Structures are given as structure tokens and as C-alpha cells.
UniProtKB/TrEMBL annotation:
Belongs to the metallo-dependent hydrolases superfamily. TatD-type hydrolase family. Pfam families: DBD_Tnp_Mut, MULE, SWIM, TatD_DNase. It comes from the Eukaryota. Coiled coil: none annotated. Transmembrane segments: none annotated. This is SWIM-type domain-containing protein. Keywords: Hydrolase, Metal-binding, Nuclease, Zinc, Zinc-finger.
């Protein structure tokens, strides 16, 4: 079992306590070196020093440069954001931070932007508005440097998450450290897929804190001390789980062998690890530390840039495989006597060092590299490539009597003529075959290069160190394969799963140019051998007893085959390409197959055709987003979780007789309640195509809030837009929004909607979507009239629809009749009572097209490429965020009407001042005014909320004529406004919240469901030429079509289908040419 490895992600080494200063008084000398020694001995192998201001960040960088295992952040703490303003030039201050971050990146030390965020517990240091302003500004630092974020959040979850969401595209990921929030705050953070949560002593104070920590997924957690603060105290709830203790003394009795009481230190991160394990009931603390370590590396050290620090990770049994040519490799050993006893100076450069070695052994320094073993580590060779590496080696071996150092030579002539083909297996050489390093005491003589080829070498643990060649590299291709030569390092190497082992093996085989096959491949062990007949290379791995780890138990690294015979097709499987490109696809969802093929050729020298690249992209997408097929099988669980986490919600699905998916309906309780409590009785029905793997349609019912913002009430995923599916959807909708109020629907009249609405909502008003009507009119007129003539008639049609009174409708339709009596007949016969204001009986508040919910459909277009459960959850997340944001916004409103309606009312009020009201008995008034045509007269009935202009009825707000009456008789206009347009109604609409649905893609094993249904993907796949048809329509008028740009055409058969489709759909009288 490997020793515990930990990374402390937050240490404030710039704090005065580490310099011996407490409350302004010096109590002892600076003891950072002593503190670090304790940390390294406790199992900490990397530390991130946090910066909280520009000057502090500079100091953090300086401290980080003192040790290869120290790294730092650059940023401004929320409580210090006033420094931007106080600098006199905030932009200049920002540029100084950016320059410092870039400098630190160059030095390999700055790994994150931060500590930045929001802290509403300490507003006395910095006001909230300034905190928010410069929190958002620092996302630009992350964007410019491509670094993750190191974040701080205290009592500010709502604003914090809102700013995060607004800047989600500017940073790759990060951690919210020193988390002390509620379960709700935790879930908000976890809703960001790239956000981790940092835990320290402050996170473990009370039993409630422990309960919150228990439910943080381990794969989203990191640990820290935030020292010298946030220690785990004897009064904390988590103290009962602490096992590791250190002696401590008061600062007045300082002893470097003891901790300072009340001052936290990085070594105590082990206590945090123990409390996390204890409160979660985890007995395997080694595995827990490995998981948290991996999380931290994933965010802050994805490339493991610091080789020396990486080599310190115990249990990483790596072997170095130097690049070989077909000429013989020479490895020349010497002792550290050369370093210590040869006039070594602090400023000794790597070039000088190589020159002295070259002179000593009488060869050129141009084709040599220097490598060394760390003291006590006979598994990992570290390469010295720059002055910093050389100095680090000296620091590592400073207290050691011996060190193993190797000089690796290549034949310069051979190196200049490297073949593109894989190196011959027969040319492979191991250290034991070629040369042996001699481990000598510090006072040994140097001359020991005689006869070394005849010696054998064994490592301390009996494992020989194998030096194996990778495919030779031409400098243009196979660049990435260099990183894979050590994916398999030999016996005792461990993996988290068999999948991880198989992926490593595949990359290793590509780097070393050989094919392999599985001799045994079962759930608990794997045996693999070289595919070449008679080649002895083989490897055996099995599950490590009592753990989930996979360990290599046996390995014969010797090849006798010719790797050059391996076909590229074998190595470039779709799964392999998918695993290679998935990170880039994650960052660039629009990564095109053509670009994938180009990148694979450039990086690995392997040519892919378009079809291979496209399918690899599909595999990578599935790896990132989950299985499309499995997502359907999770629908029963998913629907139950929606109803469990959002009580009162409706989530139901249907399958066909063969158990294949048919349709899914979702309506959240917050949507149902919001519609019934605050929205107008007006619903927009529309559909949109989903271009996902299994395609289908999304049907939606969208309401309008008081500000005319979209409010999704319900939506469904169906296999096709049919009358049957619309009828089913409307029945589900009716059960969700059961109300005695007469509803108005704005919807298309085609695709079965007209009959479905009449069948389900018997007494509703159906307003035909004006856009769909106009499109149909335009299509029916096409070919009979010129473009201009059709344009005039369409404009007149819209005028007729919007005319509030009969005379206006008649004038517009007469204009159409003057151009075409047939078009006039079409309009009159199209049931104007369903679309014209002059006849329509429902209340649609001047909304006349069903695509009102376009914003919602844009969310669908962003999510449709995900598996069905993820897509629904992404829509849920969008709705959740919208509800939260609008609730917060409306809390600031002070007017009775919402802002936009208040503005409309004030405009009508201003117009009313020029009108004359003639008093009559009762509630009916005559209002006169002047216009360009002369004097006009309108009749207002205040009891019926009616004006002859129809403006009041159409909008829900009093028109200027009605307002003139109110002012004349001393009444308030606000009393005659529709209640649906008030601030109160808006707040009622967004009073309820939509809650997260956890674990949508991985049901908890012991979680039992009442539903036991197997759901398979839709059996009816979309036609293979669906995309070709769409492309054909776009290109029909273009006599030259580039088939290479039609992504759905994978082979000649598809090309033939496309041409056949093209000929059948269009009259191609002009010459037609296809470019292949």
C-alpha cells in the first residue's frame, strides 16, 4: 500500500505568524523551513501558497520559488478589493496582477488565480458592490492566463453563484476553498461541473458542518489547512475522528520541534483527511487520500510539470525509457563525489556541468542527457534539462552520501536520420544488457568506465530497471506519443480501474509500436501478450486484495517482434481516438471531425478518414456526457428523483410495446405554482427539433410573466410531432395546470394541434400563430405572384390581424383583394376569428405568435446533444437559475406595476392630458381629442373595463382615453390595471424554487425504486438522409455542390442516395456538377 500523499491547497505563508510575529510582536524567528519539514514528513508533497493582494501575491511567488514542491496563486481577496480603487488606476493594478501571473507561469509556480470571491461576513473591510465588481474582473485574469480559479465564499452564495454563472466560459475550473456553507450552498457550487470544494478545520466545526461534508462527492473535494488559521480545535465536532497528533507549545515558549499552539500548519492537513474519512465512515484512508490527491492534480497540476516533486510521490513505480536509435545506447554512471568534491558553486550552470562531464569522459556534450535517481528511490530517473533542475538535484542530495547519476549518449549521426517507422524490437536494449550504474560513496574515485558492459545491475527491491525505445520521431509527427512511453512502467504499478489500465496499455503500445491481444480479460484479472507470433512480451494485472486498485503483478518487457508491421488502423481505434480528443471536445464542443483528423495526423502520424473522426467524436462525447442508450434506461429513476426532490412536480414517460422510448413529460412544481399564482391565463405551444443521436421533437408550453419574460410551464420529449403526441401532451398539461379560468392558447393550427386542443381543452381560445399563417399564405402564393406582390399582401395580412376594430380589418383585406381576389378569399376562409384582433374572443395581450418562447428553445439547442437525462437536467438548471435571478431582481422593485408596465402606463397618462372628457350619467364616458385626421371620439365604460379603441382590452392596461376619465373623476389608474401585470403577480410567479436533482447518471446502489422498467432508445431512427435533405434545400439553387462538406455522406452509397434525393426533390434543369 502506498504511503498517504496529500496536497495542501491553501497555506498563508505570507502571514506574520510564520515569521514569528503575533499581533505585531516578534516571538520567534521565521520558521517556514521547519514548518515545511514537518509537512513533508507528514506526507504532504505539494503546497499552494495563497496570495490575497498584489503585494502578497508577489511575496507568495517568492516563497514558492524556494522549494520545488511549493506553488502559489495570484489574486486579490474579496476583503481587499478596495486596493484596486485605492491604487488610483484600477486597470493598471489589474495589468500588474496579470503580469505577475504570467511571470509565475513562466517560472512554473503560479497554478491559479485567487484568492478571490465574495465575503459578506466582513463587509466592514470592503463593500459588497466593490467585491462583486472586482470578483468579476478577476475572471478576466483566469481567461487571459488559462488558469483555474481559487475562490472564497462567505455568506454570499447567491451573488457568488450568479457571477460564476455569468463568467462560466472564462475559466476552466477551480475550487471554492474553506467551505463553511449550508447544504443548499454546497449544491449550488456542485451544479457547476468544473467546481470543487475545499475542506479545512473551519468546515468541520459543528455536527451540521459534518453533515454537509458527508454529501460532497469525493471526486469533487480537496483538503487544505488555510494555515495559520482554521485549525481543528478540541471543541470542534470533528475532533473525535482525529488520530494524528503533534506536540505543541505556546508561542512564548517556542520550540522548533513543537507546533505553536493556536497556529495551524500544513502537516495538520492529515487531521482534515482523518476527519473527512471518519465522518463518512471510510476505513481506507490511503485510497481516500489518493482520490483527493488526484482531484487536486486534475485542477492545478494536470501535466505534473514539476518532475522532481512528482518523483517524490511514493508508490509511483515509474521507469524511464530513454529514446534509442538503431545505434547502441551508452549510459555512463558516476558518483556524487563529482558534484560535491569538484569545486561546486551555487551558480554552476547546466551547460558548464555537461561540458565538464563531456571533457571527463571524452565525448561531445551535444548528444547527451543527464539523469539521476532521488535518494532512496530506485524507480524514477529525473532528467536535468535546465539550471533549475541541476540546482534541485544538488538540494535533494545535499545530505546524502551517494547518488546514482546517469549520462545517456546517442549516436549523433543516427539521431539526425531518425526513421518515421517504429524502431525494431530486436534493437531494444535494457540497462542490464548495456551498462550498469555504480553506486559509490562520496569519497570514491571517478574513473570507473572500464569493463562496465560486463556487469549486471539489480535495484534494491530486486526489480531491474528497463530502458525501452519508443517509436522514433520525425520532429513533426508523433509528438504526443512521447508522453505515453511510460504509461506502463512495470511490476507494482497501480491503476484505479481496469479501464484506466487498458487505456494506459493502448497508449503504451502506440508509443512503442506493437500490437497486442488479450489472452485473459475478466472482471478481476487481465493477461495480455504481444500479438506477434513467438514474441515473449506479456503483462499480467489483477485486483489488489481488499482494494479496488488494479496492480501489475508480472511483466516481461522484452520484444523480439518487428513493431513496424503494426497497421495504423489497429492502433487508431475509434475508442482510442475518442479518449484522446475528449478533453479538447470538452473545451470546444464544436470540434469538427476534419480538425480531429488533422490533429491526430499531426500529433500521432495516423491518417483518419472523415467517418472515423466523426465516430470517434461520438465516442468521446459519450465518454464525457454519458451513454445515450443507458440514459433512456435511467428514465424511471430520473422521473422518481424529479418528483422526490421537487414535490408536486409531474414527471412521466411512456414506452411502446417493445419497451422502446415513446415520450416523456416534465412539469416542475415551481412552474405549475408560478403559472397558476402569477401568470396570465395564456400559454404558447410550439415544438423544436432535437438534433441528438436519436433525434425526436421537444414540445413545450410556455407562459408569459408580468414583464413578458418566458416562463416554461411544461415540456415533453416525443418521437415525432403528431396529433397523438400533442393530444397526450395537452392531457398531461391539463392535469398539471387544472384551473377553472378559461385559457388562451397561441399555437399552430397544423400537425394535429387544432383538433388536439379542441378535444382536450374544450372551452379554450385557440389563437392561430400569425407567423405560421403568414408562412402558409406565402407558400400558397408562391409561383403566382412576384416577390414584391407577395410582400405587400403579407404586410396587409399582418395589418388586418392587428387591427383592433372591424373597419381596420376590412381596409387591410380590401388592399389584399386589389392585388389578388384569390388571396383575399384565402384570408377570409382562414378563420379570422382565430387570429384577427377584431374578432378574437380570448385574451392574448397582443401576443400573436407561438414562438414567444424562443429563449427556451435556444436552451434546448444548447442541450440537445446530451443524453436525454442530462438534457432535461440542463433545462432544469436553466429554469432554476432564471427563477432565482428574477426573484432577486423583483425584490428591488418599488412600484405597483412591473417596470415595463409602469413605463407604458406613464406614457398613456402623458397622452391623456390633452383629451377632453364629457361627463355622462353612469359608468359610460365620451372622450374627445385631436389627431391629424381631425377630431376623434372614443367611448369608455369603466365598469366593463372597455374602450372603443380596444387598447385597454388588448393590453390589460388602461388606454389614454380611460386614464383621462379616471383623472377627471378622481380615480386611480392602478385600480384598473390587470392584476397579472403587477409586481406582486411577478413575485408570485417566481415564489417557488426548482431544486437540483442529484446523481442523475449514477443511482445510489442501495436506493430502491418502486419502478422496475427497462427502457430502450427509440426504435424508429430518423431517415439516414434527413440531414442531406436539409442540406439539399439550402444548396438547391447552387449548381456546384461540394460533397465533401456534407457531413452525413460517409460513403459512395450515401452519395448515391443524396444525388437521387436531389434529383427527386428539385427540378434540376440547369447543368449539375458534383465536386468530389
Amino acid at each position: 500500500m502506498a504511503p498517504i500523499r496529500m496536497i495542501d491547497i491553501a497555506v498563508n505563508f505570507t502571514d506574520g505568524m510564520f515569521k514569528g510575529i503575533y499581533n505585531g510582536k516578534q516571538h520567534h524567528v521565521s520558521d517556514i523551513a521547519t514548518v515545511l519539514s514537518r509537512a513533508w514528513n507528514a506526507g504532504v508533497d505539494r503546497i499552494i501558497v495563497t496570495g490575497g493582494s498584489l503585494e502578497e501575491s508577489k511575496e507568495a511567488l517568492a516563497i514558492a520559488e524556494t522549494d520545488g514542491r511549493l506553488f502559489c496563486t495570484v489574486g486579490v481577496h474579496p476583503t481587499r478589493c478596495k486596493e484596486f480603487e485605492e491604487s488610483g488606476d484600477p486597470e493598471k493594478h489589474f495589468q500588474a496582477l496579470l503580469a505577475l501571473a504570467k511571470e509565475g507561469i513562466q517560472k512554473g509556480k503560479v497554478v491559479a488565480i485567487g484568492e478571490c470571491g465574495l465575503d459578506y461576513d466582513r463587509l466592514h473591510f470592503c463593500p459588497a458592490e466593490i467585491q462583486k465588481k472586482y470578483f468579476e474582473k478577476q475572471f478576466e485574469l483566469a481567461y487571459a492566463t488559462k488558469l483555474p480559479m481559487f475562490l472564497h465564499m462567505r455568506a454570499a452564495a447567491e451573488d457568488f453563484c450568479e457571477i460564476m454563472q455569468q463568467n462560466i466560459s472564462k475559466f476552466s475550473g477551480g475550487v471554492t476553498h474553506s467551505f463553511t456553507g449550508t447544504a443548499e450552498d454546497r449544491d449550488k457550487l456542485l451544479s457547476f461541473h468544473n467546481m470543487y470544494i475545499g475542506i479545512n478545520g473551519c468546515s468541520l466545526k459543528m455536527a451540521e458542518n459534518l453533515d454537509v461534508v458527508k454529501d460532497i462527492p469525493l471526486e469533487r473535494m480537496m483538503i487544505e489547512t488555510d494555515s495559520p488559521y482554521c485549525e481543528i480545535k478540541s471543541t470542534h465536532a470533528g475532533i473525535k475522528f482525529v488520530k494524528s497528533l503533534w506536540p505543541s507549545k505556546k508561542k512564548e515558549k517556542y520550540d522548533q520541534e513543537s507546533l505553536v499552539k493556536g497556529r495551524n500548519e500544513p502537516c495538520l492537513v492529515r487531521q482534515v483527511l482523518e476527519v473527512v474519512a471518519g465522518c463518512r465512515g471510510i476505513s481506507d484512508i490511503d485510497q481516500l487520500s489518493a482520490t483527493l490527491y488526484q482531484n487536486t492534480c486534475r485542477v492545478f497540476f494536470p501535466q505534473d510539470l514539476d518532475a522532481a516533486a512528482d518523483a517524490l510521490l511514493a508508490g509511483r513505480h515509474e521507469r524511464f525509457n530513454p529514446l534509442l536509435t538503431k545505434s547502441k545506447l551508452k549510459i555512463l554512471p558516476f558518483s556524487c563525489f563529482f558534484i560535491k568534491g569538484h569545486g561546486w558553486e551555487e551558480n554552476h550552470s547546466n551547460i558548464d556541468f555537461k561540458s565538464e562531464i563531456a571533457e571527463m569522459f571524452n565525448f561531445s556534450s551535444n548528444n547527451m542527457s543527464i539523469k539521476y535517481f532521488l535518494p532512496g528511490n530506485k524507480k524514477t530517473l529525473i532528467t536535468i534539462s535546465k539550471d533549475k533542475d541541476l540546482q534541485r538535484m544538488v538540494n535533494f542530495i545535499d545530505d546524502t552520501s551517494t547518488v546514482d547519476v546517469f549520462v545517456v549518449l546517442e549516436d549523433a549521426a543516427a539521431a539526425r536520420n531518425v526513421s518515421n517507422m517504429p524502431a525494431s524490437r530486436s534493437s531494444r536494449t535494457t540497462i542490464s544488457e548495456a551498462v550498469v550504474p555504480i553506486v559509490a560513496p562520496a569519497n570514491a574515485a571517478v574513473g570507473m568506465n572500464d569493463g562496465i558492459d560486463q556487469l549486471d545491475m539489480d535495484m534494491a527491491d530486486g526489480t531491474s530497471l528497463d530502458c525501452m525505445p519508443i517509436n522514433t520521431i520525425d520532429g513533426k509527427h508523433h509528438k504526443a506519443a512521447q508522453n505515453w512511453e511510460n504509461m506502463i512502467t512495470g511490476v507494482d504499478q497501480r491503476f484505479n480501474s481496469f479501464n484506466e489500465f487498458r487505456e494506459a496499455l493502448h497508449k503504451y503500445s502506440i508509443a512503442h509500436g506493437f500490437a497486442y491481444r488479450y489472452k485473459q480479460n475478466v472482471s478481476h484479472r487481465v493477461t495480455v501478450k504481444c500479438k506477434a507470433q513467438g514474441c515473449p512480451w506479456r503483462i499480467y494485472a489483477s485486483r489488489l486484495s481488499t482494494t479496488q486498485l488494479i496492480c501489475i503483478k508480472k511483466m516481461n518487457p522484452t520484444h523480439t517482434c518487428e513493431g513496424a508491421s503494426v497497421k495504423a488502423g489497429y492502433r487508431a481505434t475509434r475508442g482510442w481516438v475518442g479518449s484522446i480528443i475528449k478533453e479538447k471536445l470538452k473545451a470546444s464542443p464544436n470540434y469538427k471531425p476534419k480538425d480531429i483528423a488533422n490533429d491526430i495526423k499531426r500529433e500521432y502520424g495516423i491518417q483518419l478518414n472523415y467517418s472515423q473522426a466523426w465516430r470517434a467524436k461520438e465516442i468521446a462525447r459519450e465518454q464525457l456526457q454519458g451513454s445515450f442508450k443507458e440514459a433512456y434506461n435511467l428514465l424511471p429513476y430520473f422521473c422518481e428523483k424529479i418528483k422526490e426532490t421537487n414535490p408536486g412536480s409531474i414527471a412521466t414517460f411512456n414506452t411502446k410495446d417493445d419497451s422502446s422510448f415513446h415520450r416523456l413529460f416534465v412539469s416542475f412544481h415551481a412552474s405549475i405554482s408560478g403559472f397558476l399564482q402569477g401568470c396570465r391565463p395564456l400559454i404558447f405551444l410550439d415544438s423544436t427539433t432535437m438534433n441528438s443521436k436519436y433525434q425526436g421533437m421537444l414540445l413545450a408550453a410556455i407562459a408569459a410573466d408580468a414583464e413578458d419574460g418566458i416562463f416554461p410551464v411544461a415540456f415533453a420529449v416525443v418521437d415525432d410531432e403528431t396529433e397523438d403526441n400533442w393530444t397526450w401532451f395537452l392531457r398531461e398539461l391539463k392535469s398539471a395546470v387544472s384551473t377553472s379560468t378559461q385559457l388562451t392558447f397561441v399555437a399552430d393550427f397544423q400537425n394535429g394541434l387544432k383538433r388536439a386542443l379542441a378535444d382536450v381543452f374544450v372551452k379554450c381560445y385557440h389563437s392561430y400563430c400569425l407567423r405560421h399563417l403568414a408562412d402558409k399564405l406565402n407558400r400558397d402564393l408562391k409561383g403566382q405572384f412576384s416577390h414584391d406582390a407577395r410582400r405587400f399582401m403579407i404586410n396587409d395580412f399582418y395589418t388586418a390581424a392587428r387591427a383592433p376594430r372591424l373597419e381596420g380589418f376590412q381596409r387591410a383585406t380590401e388592399s389584399i383583394k386589389c392585388i389578388s381576389p384569390e388571396a383575399y378569399d384565402w384570408v377570409i376562409q382562414s378563420e379570422p376569428e382565430h387570429w384577427a384582433n377584431a374578432f378574437f374572443g380570448g385574451a392574448r395581450y397582443n401576443h400573436m405568435i407561438s414562438s414567444f418562447g424562443q429563449e427556451f428553445y435556444s436552451w434546448v439547442s444548447e442541450a440537445h446533444e446530451y443524453p436525454i437525462t442530462h438534457m432535461i437536467d440542463l433545462l432544469r438548471g436553466k429554469m432554476m437559475e432564471t427563477i432565482y435571478k428574477r426573484r432577486v431582481d423583483s425584490s428591488q422593485w418599488m412600484t405597483k406595476l412591473t417596470p415595463s408596465n409602469e413605463e407604458k402606463l406613464q406614457k398613456e397618462t402623458a397622452m391623456a392630458r390633452s383629451l377632453q372628457v364629457l361627463l355622462t350619467q353612469g359608468s359610460v364616458f365620451e372622450v374627445r381629442g385631436e389627431c391629424v385626421e381631425g377630431t376623434f371620439v372614443e367611448v369608455v365604460n369603466i365598469d366593463h373595463w372597455d374602450c372603443s379603441c380596444k387598447g385597454w382590452q388588448l393590453t390589460g392596461l388602461p388606454c389614454c382615453h380611460a386614464i383621462a376619465v379616471f383623472e377627471c373623476i378622481g380615480r386611480s389608474s392602478y385600480d384598473y390595471c390587470s392584476r397579472y401585470l403587477t409586481t406582486e403577480s411577478f413575485r408570485l410567479t417566481y415564489a417557488e424554487s426548482i431544486h437540483p436533482v442529484p446523481n442523475i447518471d449514477r443511482p445510489i446502489e442501495d436506493e430502491s425504486l418502486d419502478v422496475a422498467v427497462t427502457v430502450t432508445p427509440p426504435t424508429k431512427r430518423p431517415p439516414a438522409n434527413a440531414r442531406a435533405l436539409a442540406t439539399t434545400r439550402r444548396l438547391a439553387k447552387n449548381p456546384s455542390v461540394d460533397v465533401g462538406h456534407l457531413e452525413c455522406l460517409d460513403d459512395l452509397l450515401a452519395v448515391a442516395c443524396f444525388l437521387s434525393l436531389l434529383v427527386s426533390c428539385f427540378d434540376l434543369s440547369s447543368p449539375f456538377r458534383v465536386l468530389t
